[in-house]
């Protein structure tokens, strides 16, 4: 059974989120006019706009109460202090925020946290086993597949998803029509480029990123 943590910052984070959105109790209390009838409304409004939920992040269960508009990316970075996933565009365009949700990659900036209640999220911080890096992390280092590193956590989480999708037989846009159905998809360089195309790198480290993913897929007997 997973340990259950209620982070000490849950209340503070909720207040911070409310302050950002300008709709929380703290914010409204500061602007409400005096009077007992009016003072009760902000708290009621804040309660209506928040929900309690549990997110399992990197093996730890977090009980959170969140404004309904809070994204998973903001939960990770601002409430849980997991800053590996990056906010590049905040619009689902760059992939810098990629994490794994129940084993499938997703842009966390597009996910509302309240819709992920009970799900298991893995971030770049959760890939290593103690001091031992994930094979993709090692491959990125060995191939020097980064420059500034801003996109790298998303690239690596996305690559973890790619390997699993290929192993599970999910075809891509470039998978040959006559490829065997249902079996693992061989990850050619073309397949890796296509499947990683949602993760942008402003530094242009693409050639080495592809090499790193290909190295690991080769080690796993999935490359051709
Ligand atoms: S920050 Fe999520 S896709 Fe760019
Ligand atoms: S390494 Fe700089 S954005 Fe990719």
UniProtKB/TrEMBL annotation:
Pfam families xrefs: Fer2 (PF00111), Fer2_2 (PF01799)
InterPro entries referenced in this protein's UniProt entry, alphabetically: 2Fe-2S-bd, 2Fe-2S-bd_dom_sf, 2Fe-2S_ferredoxin-like_sf, 2Fe-2S_ferredoxin-type, 2Fe2S_fd_BS, Aldehyde_Oxdr_Iron-Sulfur, Beta-grasp_dom_sf
Listed SUPFAM superfamilies: 2Fe-2S ferredoxin-like, CO dehydrogenase ISP C-domain like
Annotated ranges, domain 2Fe-2S ferredoxin-type: 51-127
Keyword Oxidoreductase: yes
CDD domains: fer2 (cd00207)
Annotated stretches, region: Disordered: 1-45
Gene3D superfamilies: 3.10.20.30, [2Fe-2S]-binding domain (1.10.150.120)
Compositional bias annotation for Low complexity: 10-45
Entry annotated with the keyword Oxidoreductase: yes
Keywords: Iron, Metal-binding, Oxidoreductase
Superkingdom of origin: Bacteria
PROSITE patterns listed in its UniProt record: 2FE2S_FER_1, 2FE2S_FER_2
Name recorded for this polypeptide: 2Fe-2S iron-sulfur cluster-binding protein
């Amino acid at each position: 059974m997973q340990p259950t943590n209620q982070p000490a910052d849950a209340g503070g984070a909720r207040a911070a989120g409310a302050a950002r959105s300008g709709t929380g109790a703290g914010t409204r209390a500061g602007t409400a006019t005096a009077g007992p009838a009016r003072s009760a409304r902000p708290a009621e409004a804040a309660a209506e706009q928040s929900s309690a939920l549990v997110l399992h992040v990197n093996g730890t269960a977090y009980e959170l109460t969140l404004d309904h508009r809070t994204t998973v990316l903001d939960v990770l970075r601002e409430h849980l202090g997991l800053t590996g996933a990056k906010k590049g565009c905040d619009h689902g365009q760059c992939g810098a925020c990629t994490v794994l949700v129940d084993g499938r990659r997703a842009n966390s900036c597009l996910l509302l946290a309240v819709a992920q209640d009970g799900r298991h999220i893995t971030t770049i911080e959760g890939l290593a086993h103690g001091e031992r890096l994930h094979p993709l992390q090692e491959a990125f280092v060995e191939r020097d597949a980064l420059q500034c590193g801003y996109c790298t956590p998303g690239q690596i989480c996305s690559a973890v998803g790619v390997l699993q999708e290929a192993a599970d037989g999910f075809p891509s846009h470039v998978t040959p029509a006559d490829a065997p159905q249902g079996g693992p998809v061989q990850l050619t360089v073309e397949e890796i480029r296509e499947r990683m195309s949602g993760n942008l790198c402003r530094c242009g480290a693409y050639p080495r990123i592809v090499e790193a993913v290909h190295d690991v897929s080769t080690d796993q007997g999935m490359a051709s």
